[in-house]
Amino acid sequence: IFFNFFIADCPVKQPSYADDLTFSRSAVRVQEIEGGLQQDLDQVCSWADWKKLVIAPAKCSVTFFTPDKSHESNVHPQIKINNVAIPLDKNPRILGVTFDPHLHFHAHVRSKARDGRQRLCILRSLAGASWGCLRENLLCTYKSHIELAVSYASPVWSPNISDSSKNDL
Questions:
Q1: Measuring CA to CA, which residue among 13, 1, 14, 10 is closest to residue 94?
Q2: pTM for the complete prediction?
Q3: Which of 68, 78, 166, 169 has its CA 20 to 30 A from that of 84?
Q4: What is the per-residue pLDDT across 127-142, written as a single tens digit (0 to 9) for each?
Q5: pLDDT, position 161
Q6: C-alpha distance from residue 23 to each of 53, 99, 112, 138, 149 (Å)
Q7: CA proximity to 57, closest of 80, 38, 89, 75
């Protein structure tokens, strides 16, 4: 709570969680996006210096989201902190959701499906035919341990996944 008070006067109002900030810009040309993001980041860096906070470029990343599936997928917007370029990350993980440049969420769905299969093994071990848990307990375990983990943030990613990704679930 104290940290939230400490950073409440951040000059650029962007979505954040604790010490994670996410900047975003939308424009027709990449140069407009770069310029706007660099300006926002410069303001935050100046504010952070004033607050005696350190922003580590190596712990930052930049991602370019685009509907263009050809050449724009490889664009690396040149955003810098203290003249150090921020690395490109095509699959950033933001608040537990793995994104990709085209917002198809393939990696996220694969990860959730793998996690769900592993968690089902726990449920199977609790569901022995002669000694297993009561049905109500199994259902409660499923809802709290498997369903919540697999469907986490689904309003963000589920409307955009492909048919092949739906089959993975």
A1: 14
A2: 0.77
A3: 68
A4: 776 666 777 888 888 8
A5: 82
A6: 18, 14, 25, 42, 26
A7: 80
pLDDT score for 132: 66
Residue 70: pLDDT over 70 = no
Residue 129 phi, psi dihedral angles, 5° rounding: -65, -40
